Amino acid sequence: MVKKNLIFVGLLVFTFFISAPASAQAVRGVTDTEILIGQWGPQTGPAAPWGAVARGTDLLVKIINEEGGIHGRKLKYFLRDDSYMPAKTKAIAKEFVEQIGVFAVVGGVGVATGMTARDYLMENKVPWFSPVTGVYEWIHPIQKHLFAMYPLYDDEAFNLTGYLYEKLGFKKIAMFYQNDDYGKQGVMGVERYLLKHKIKLVEKVSAEVTDRDLSTHALKLKNSGAEAVIMWTMPTHAALILAETAKIGFKPQWATSNTLSDSALMMGITRGLWTGMINSNFAELPDSNHPLMVKYREAHKKFAPQERWGVFYYAGMAFAEPFVEGVRRAGRNLTTESWVKAMETMKDFQGIGLPVTYAGLKDRQGGKHVFYGKVKPDGNIERLTEWIKITK
Amino acid sequence: MFGQLIVSGLAVGACYALIAIAMVIIYKTSEVLNFAQGEMAMISTFVAFTLLETHQVPFPYTLALTLLFAILLAIFFEIAFLRQAKDPTVLGLIIITLGFEMVLMGFVGWKWGPDQRALPFPVSNIEAYNFYGLFISKINFWTLIVSLVLMLILFLFFRYTKLGIAMRATQQNQLAARVMGIRTKWIFSFTWALSSMVGAVAGMLIAAMGVLDPPMMMDPLLKGFASGVLGGMTSLPGAALGGALLGVIENLFGGYISLSFKSVVAFAIIVLMLCIKPSGLLAKHYVKKV
Amino acid sequence: MDIKRNYYEDIELFKSNTILVWSILFLIFLAILPWLVMKYHLLGLSVYIVNLITVHAIVAVGLNILVGFTGQISMGHAGFFAIGAFTTVIFVLNVGLPFYLALPLGGFISSIFGFLLGLPALRLKGPYLAIATLGFGMAVTTTIKHLEFFGGRMGLQAPKLYLFGTPMKDIHFYYMIMIIAVIMVIGAVKLIKTRVGRAFIAIRDSDIAAEAMGVNLTYYKTLAFAVSAFYTGVAGGLYAFILGFINPESFHLIMSITFLAMVVVGGLGSIMGSIAGATLMTYLDIKLQAIQDISLIGPALVTFSQKYMSVAGISNIAVIVYGLIMILIVLFEPLGIFGFWIRTKRYWKTWPF
């Protein structure tokens, strides 16, 4: 008996020591030849369509590495699936910092998921560039190592309402939104604008993420008699509400946020109802002739032909470009400090996404522009404006 | 507005009813709560999508092939997993169906990717019929018709055919049924196949109404449960009635009381109904004796 | 060996010295575990994951008291988990109670809801109970979503906890959670061994027979729900603070299912099994997602996906594996890891025969 137990204990002890301890570096995640970066994103579960962002960043990393990296260092990219579950996101953040030892976290879809990791990353002074949601949580309070880029939903909605109200002359505006952080900050912006003009939304209808029957919602919108409806939802709800309203013969001017700017996808799932939609965009259009877009499209054919060239796929590149530019500007002597300094020098830097400007510790919201587009019957977007500043 | 709410409620209720019927068919015969019902319907719908979109198969053939797939899937699950469980407990069976649900969910995500899609369907979800100012979309209308026809067929099937009677006998007393010469094992497989077919029809209709993506059946499945509980988990007409009622109640609640609490209604109905009348509206309550 | 000479031996925590020695060794192991994890990243763990596992173990033990020992199915434990998490945070944040008071209070409120859910459960059995609890769990999270008091859909940020003036880190949490977990596990083991536990087991085996023997069904069934909800509520409170941010969306049906899977995989009616089940399922849940990074298997899977499946959805393999484990355990080892352990032990003891 004793002998057997000893063997057992011996086995246990053995398993402990087979895993090798991590080695120490001068700057976490930066070696002579490599820079380690990480990103989480939902690859499984209900939010999986947004996982394309994290895979898009992978393409940018491949392009940069093929060109020889940055100052002699190649990027090494770690993509982790958090299934949109906050507990997993935090586990991934800890893995990034404690086990892999990444230099920075880039992107990351989701508010609730990112919020579990925010304080932890900041306490450990891990740079986090551009969480892929436009909510206030990332810049209130301002964090030294957190650089936000995604245009704020609040400002975006504020400006979009202005565009509808002043430019296009819609006076009766209703809102359809998803009952969460994303939707509520959208409502905030719309109401803020209308308050300035002393009018109210004619109707405000919210839907739960899981709802699949929106007939009542559609009916309420119709009864409000709105001329224009601003929609702050996810693609599924957008498709459902368009079908429901079309069915009961309610055809207002729709307008929506950049979250639904993937018009190819939306056109497909709405069976053509997406035509005429006014939406804001945070990155060049898929068929744009922008030299970088041309280059990326070719790289896409070469490295990841199996991926759909959707807006949120190349958004993964758009929201990582300024980070890479920061690394470039920081030079060979890359540290967290030098990167932060380099980022703070950024003024109207633009890749395929919106222009990005940071100014000292006062302003960590880099992206403040969108442009508007109108969806043509063939699914492409007609550009209505140039990049316009949306901050109040 | 009232009339429109009722009509829309009935239309969505028809979908709930179909899911509830699929669930009740299995529950009636084998007392298994099938949590994989939604995902089985979902994968069948994806198969239909591939046939229609990628292989350009005409719709009637697609329908036949999809139903065939649904049957094979259900029989495979019944034989490969459920039948292998020895002395299964209620919980054990629930866990098996939950596990199967995850497997299917994962498989669909792996095979088709996470993007939303539109199922090319011969009936439009945008165009509507207008009955004296009440709008009902073509797809909703046909869903109502399909569910009524299916109900009728199932009713006649259970009442008058040999197989239907054998299924009811198996439900009432498995041992006695076997003594009477009924091959109860095949009855179970057949039950699953039947339920899976109804589910596949429901899945296709639901996808045609909105969007086809892996989580599309999560909400309808829960609503199907609620309809089943409302009407009675052992009664087919009950399930249909429950579905219709749930759809109407939900819409009236959303229209007149609170739209944002509309999603709680179904769950509140589940809990309340089980407190007041666990057997549901149309099923008889019988107490198991020692 | 197993002959008991008096009734008190039944209630004793340690049946023999061997078990006592192993328990002490296990406690020592728990005490040095964070050090091992931090230094060697044992199995790719971090202290945070160990904390998460421990919290899930508390839930699994609580759920097992209800499911494994009393025979009542619950598919709504994410609801209790959410109640515990939100009330604990609100007690600390809005009422200003210290954490050590808020935590048991959160558990207590959760247990009140457990008691309430136990009432309809008196009439319901098997599948009906499963649906009722499912409805309850969904109703709780959907309601929390709509109450601004709970932060609405945006969720709540848990305040930082301080230990002697310094903010608590994972390692401090580890010892705090571990002490609570050990106390609660011992409590559960004791509870099962006493009169109450035997009443639970009698109800599980046959409630009609139990009633005939003089077991008060109303009392014990609601008690089982309340105790189980208390465990889950306390775990929820801890969960809120190790995560630092909670929002109702994450307390979804899938979470209830995961809890149930932990108990079934670990072994119904075994406290140690629940702990093992929670450990295994949580670990797999977190670690399986990087399946394409595993050497040899990973690249093969990627090529396979490119050819027949989609590369975008490759992470879904984790979901498939998770589901298969649930099915296979029920099919081949209905007693779960605990059953497997018993068989291994028997094999070990009688070796080489």
Structure description:
The complex is a heterotrimer of chains A (392), B (290) and C (353). Chain A has 392 residues and is an alpha/beta fold. Chain A has two domains: 34-151 and 289-361, 3-Layer(aba) Sandwich (Rossmann fold); 153-281 and 372-389, Rossmann fold (3-Layer(aba) Sandwich). Helix content of chain A is 41%, strand content 15%. Chain A has helices at 2-17, 52-66, 86-100, 111-123, 153-167, 181-196, 215-224, 235-247, 263-269, 291-303, 311-318, 321-330, 336-344, and strands at residues 34-41, 74-81, 104-106, 128-129, 146-147, 173-178, 203-207, 228-232, 253-256, 278-281, 369-375, 381-383, 388-389. In chain A, the strands form two sheets. In chain A, strands 6, 7, 8, 9, 10, 11, 12 and 13 form an eight-stranded mixed β-sheet that branches. Chain A has a five-stranded parallel β-sheet with strand order 2-1-3-4-5. In chain A, helix 4 (111-123) links the parallel strand 3 (104-106) and strand 4 (128-129). The longest helix of chain A has 16 residues, at 2-17. Chain A is globular and about 65 Å long. Mean pLDDT of chain A is 87; it is low at 15-24. Chain B has a two-stranded antiparallel ribbon. In chain B, helix 2 packs antiparallel against helix 3 (59-80) and helix 2 packs across helix 8. With 290 residues, chain B is mostly helical. Chain B has one domain. The model of chain B has no long low-confidence stretch (mean pLDDT 88). Chain B has helices at 2-30, 37-54, 59-80, 90-112, 138-160, 162-172, 174-179, 184-209, 218-231, 236-257, 262-276, and strands at residues 128-131, 134-137. Chain C has 353 residues and is mostly helical. Chain C has a domain at 48-253. Chain C has helices spanning 7-11, 17-40, 47-69, 77-95, 99-121, 126-146, 170-193, 195-205, 207-212, 217-243, 253-266, 271-287, 297-308, 316-332, 336-350, and strands at 156-157, 162-163, 166-167, 245-246. In chain C, the strands form two sheets. A two-stranded antiparallel ribbon of chain C has the order 1-4. A two-stranded antiparallel ribbon of chain C has the order 2-3. In chain C, helix 3 (47-69) crosses helix 8 and helix 3 (47-69) packs across helix 12. The radius of gyration of chain C is 21 Å and the shape is globular. The model of chain C has no long low-confidence stretch (mean pLDDT 86). Chains in contact: A-B, A-C, B-C. The interface between A and B is large, with 38 and 43 residues.
